[in-house]
Every structure is written in C-alpha cells, then in structure tokens.
Hints:
Elements: E1 4-5, H1 16-25, E2 26-27, E3 53-54, H2 61-77, E4 80-83, E5 89-96, H3 109-122, E6 134-141, E7 145-147, H4 155-160, H5 174-185, E8 190-195, E9 208-213, E10 219-229, E11 234-243, E12 248-256, E13 269-275, E14 280-287, E15 294-297, E16 308-311, E17 319-323, H6 328-341, E18 344-346, E19 353-357, E20 369-374, E21 379-382, E22 386-388, E23 405-408, E24 416-421, E25 424-431, E26 437-442, H7 455-469, E27 473-474, E28 478-480, E29 484-488, E30 495-499, E31 505-509, E32 514-518, E33 523-529, E34 532-539, H8 543-546, E35 553-556, H9 561-565, E36 569-571, H10 573-594
Parallel strand pairs: 5-6, 5-8, 8-9, 17-18, 17-19, 19-20, 20-26, 28-34
Antiparallel strand pairs: 1-4, 2-3, 4-36, 6-7, 9-35, 10-11, 11-14, 12-13, 12-15, 15-16, 21-23, 22-24, 24-25, 25-26, 27-29, 29-32, 30-31, 30-33, 33-34
Helix pairs in contact: 1-2, 2-10, 6-7
Amino acid sequence: MIPTFTFPLGFLSLLAILGLAAIYLLRTRSRRYPVSSLMLWVNQQQAREGGLRVERLQTPLLFFLELLAIILLSLAVAAPIIRTAQGAIPLMVVLDDSFSMLAGVDETPKSRAIAALEEQLSAQGFNPLRNRRYAVRYVLAGTEPQLLNESARTTAEAVAQLDAWRCLSPFADLEAAISLAAELGGAKALILVLTDDSPPELMESDRVQWWSFGIPHANVAFVNATRTATVSDERCLLEITNLSPHVGSTELIVRMDDTAAKESVPPLHRSTLEISPRATRRVFLNLPPETPLLQARIGNDVLAIDNEIMLLPQRRKPVLVDVRIQDARLRSLVEDALASTNRALSAKTGPELVFLDDTAIADNSVEAWLMRIITESEASAYVGPFVIDLTHPLTEGLSLRGVVWGAGVKEQFMGTPIITAGNVPLLTDTEQFTGAHEIRLRLHPDFSTLQNSPNWPILMWNLLQWRASQTPGLEHTNLRLGDVAVLRTKPGITSVEVASPHGEIHTQPVLDRTINLKAGVVGIYEIRAGADRYTFASNALYQAESDLTAKVTGRWGDWGEATLRWWGYQSFAWFFLMLAIAILTLHLIFVKRET
C-alpha cells in the first residue's frame, strides 16, 4: 500500500538539508598561539565541526544519520495516510421511538423512514469508497436511550433488525440518544437521526444528519382517563382533546369488559362530541358498583393508539386495624381519624396495623405493624420549631406551623427520630428484622393542639397508605404508557410470570417481595404470582405526543465531503517519527563514542 501525503507543503522542511550541508562545508579557521603549558586545555585537538572556512565536503557517518533523520521528519510532517483493509464505516442510526411515528393511514413516518434508510444503504453512489460497507447500529430514542442491536454489515440484515423498532414510547429524548450514539460509535462514527420532528436550532456537527418524515395531521385523542371508587359507586372521568386548528367531531362509546364485539349489548354511554380547536371535553360517568374492565373508544383517525383506553377498577386496599388503646379519649381520637380516611377496616384477628398505648402488650404476630401512643405524666407543650424528616412516608403533607405538641421531656427515646422538637423526639420509627415497623408517638392531649389540626388525619392517612403499600398487591391498576407498575408479593414468592397484552409471557425474579414492571405497550398486563393473579392497564395518554400539527418533513445536516473522502485511511506519520527517533538515538551513541 502506497501512502498518500495529505500535507505536501510539509516537504518544504527538506530545505534543512542545505543547512546541514553548509555545516559540513564550512570549517573552523585555526591560528597558532604559543602558550606556556597545555595542561589547562581539555580538548587539545583542532575543532572541525563548523566554522567560516570552506573546505572539501566531509561525509562521515554522522552526516548520513543526520541527513536520514531530516528526510524522515519531513515525511512525517507531510502527514502520510494509507488505505486500511479493516472494518466498515460505523453508522449510528438514532430511531425516534415515540408513538407519533405511527401516525398515518397508508404510510407512517416509521415506514417512510425505513424505506429511506434501506434506499440509502443500498445506493452504490452514496459511499465514496465503493468497496466499503456500513456497519449499522441502532439506538432507540425513548424515555431513556437504548442500544437496539449489534452491528449489521448488510442492508438486508440492517432492515431485518428494524423489526424491534415498535414506536411505543410516550416521548423521545433525542438529545440523550445522540449522545449515547456518539459515545458508543467513537470519534469517527457517523450519526443519522430518523424522526418526525424538526432538529434543534443549533446542529453544526459534520457527523450528524437529521431526517424527518412527519406530516401535519389533525388528531382527536384521549389525554386523560381515571376511575375513582366511592363508598357506594365508582366515577369515571374521560378527557378528549381536539388537537387541530379546526372544529372536530367524534363519537364516544363506553362499554364494559369485552362486550365491544357484542352489538346486542348496549354500551354504557354513547355520544357525539363537537370539540372546538385545541379544546378539551370532559365526560363524567357514574359506574355501578363492581364494574369490571371499562373500555372507551372514539372515532378512527390517523393515530389509532390514542383512540382507545381501558380502565380497571381502582380500589384502594383497606388496612386491617385493631385499636387496643385503653384510654377512652385517646381511643376516640384515633378511631375518628381512621374513620375519616375510609382506608381502615376493623379486625380483631389477623390485623395488619395495631394501635397500642404505653400499657398494652403486643402479640407475637410477625406481620402486624405497631403504632404505640405514649402519654407521659411529666409533659411539656412544644411550639416548635419542629425538625421533620421529609423523606419518611409518615411526613408527607405535614405542616406543623402553629401547632402546639404536648409530649414528654425525655431526650432518650426508642427508635429513629422522624419528628423532633429540639433534642426531644416526638415521633420515632423502629424496623424489626421481620420487616414490620413499630412507630412510637408521644402525645399528651391536654397540652396539645395536634389532634385538633388537619395534621392528625393526615398522619393517620400516611400511616395507612404506608402500611397498605407493604401488603400484597399492585399500588396502581391504571397506568400511562411507559409508567412502572409496582407489585408487592406475598412471602415466599421468588419469581412471577408476566403476560403482556400481546400474549408474550416471561418470568421475572422477585427481589425483597417487590417487582417493578414497565408498561411498555398499550393494553392489559397480567402478573401471576403463585396462585394469585394481578392485572393492570396501560394507556397512551400524552397530549404532547398526540399533537401532530407541528410535524415536518425534511433533511438537515451534512456528514461533510472531507470526512467521507478520507474514510478508511489511517495516518502513517507515526512510522516515520519512530524511525527518526531511532536514527537520532543512534546518532547520539556515535557522538558519545567520539568524545
């Protein structure tokens, strides 16, 4: 392989050879001087390394070493490169994985992007190095960037790997995906972005091309949907938005369970909605108790994923509570606060949460949590400032400003402090080795206004919410696409089976009785944990992603002709530099020997 010199002007450094020749042509003129002794002279020989007297050119070995060093350094300065035979051009393709890429009837931005990429990879004239191929790797741009595949070196292989591009993310973080692509691809990798949005204002890199395949469309979409349970029935809220500059009309049909295909069964609700431009219509429905899965649909348009939602019953898990406080006043305060939350269910056997006073004895249940309220004879009224651990589940929403808290005065108190008045702990938490908690609350009602403030029921609500989150079951049954479902399993469960809405089943291990499962597709998920079954729904409820009015088509950026022209070449200057260093080292050895 013959090297190519990218900086020919570097050969001008060969003019240094004329200076070297002049050194060896000009000799030192010496005169005789009589001296009394030569013992003070170190070098008694005549210097011949240079001077002003022209003599016959001397060509010792040192001259040829210096000449060779000049030539090698000149070659290195000329920046030689050689064609390498290794690898292909690394091409990092960033794929917009948001669900707006599925908008369209005959063609979608996703299908147009795949066709354009296949044409680009197959084009022979596109690659300036005709005998080269691209090594294609994909990065999915979703809520978090994700590497999709290993390198594909043929067009067929690269297109086949796009089957994993599903476009089901609620939004696309393209900047994070481009950063990941640049890091994984290296300094010389080319980056191609396939999306339906316009690029950021500043995109000056000669390594990035931005291709957009979006088409502006009008779209009517569900943007919010909830089910709320009350004592007697359930309520459902549906929000439908007209994401267009014109008045839109759509039909809303709400059915129960799988009756959508049964025309003989009338729907729960049917109406035609006229919605102003960029406006939202809210529909409230009263559902009978024990209503199963609820399905709501609007009319078909260019984006199908946001035209249907499914809602499962959202029932808060009640907490089995046993109040064993002997003091009648304290017992009444606790029972009234628990009743206001509508989360507590009285249970004398198998309680999950037990309220005790300082004289009651707890049983040996390993599952029951304890809330011990301690009234001390030696007490004081504290007006603050109170130090609150805001990271603890019991303190969410608490504001003790203006509250007088009556409690004991001892600074030593069992448990980790959650709320303190100076150095005096008022509320502490102790976790047992079984995972159960014992909460200690110091309260003297005679010196306190805490029980008369909103903080009292808030504290009880937080306690029940915290306890319920640690009982088996799902925290939420209706999620947005991309959210994480949190399931607390029963003791002894080491793994669960997860059935996705598409019917795919996979096994997921359970760590610390908890699993976190991302709702990656729209539909109903089922989790099988031993004999128990848990289901949750995932819906595409994102107004920003359903808005198609600002989508564009275009191409921005250029990989640069210079970048592509020299692709596949490698600098060879290091070879000449290493030879020059070796020659100069040899030159130094000979000089030392002569001296």
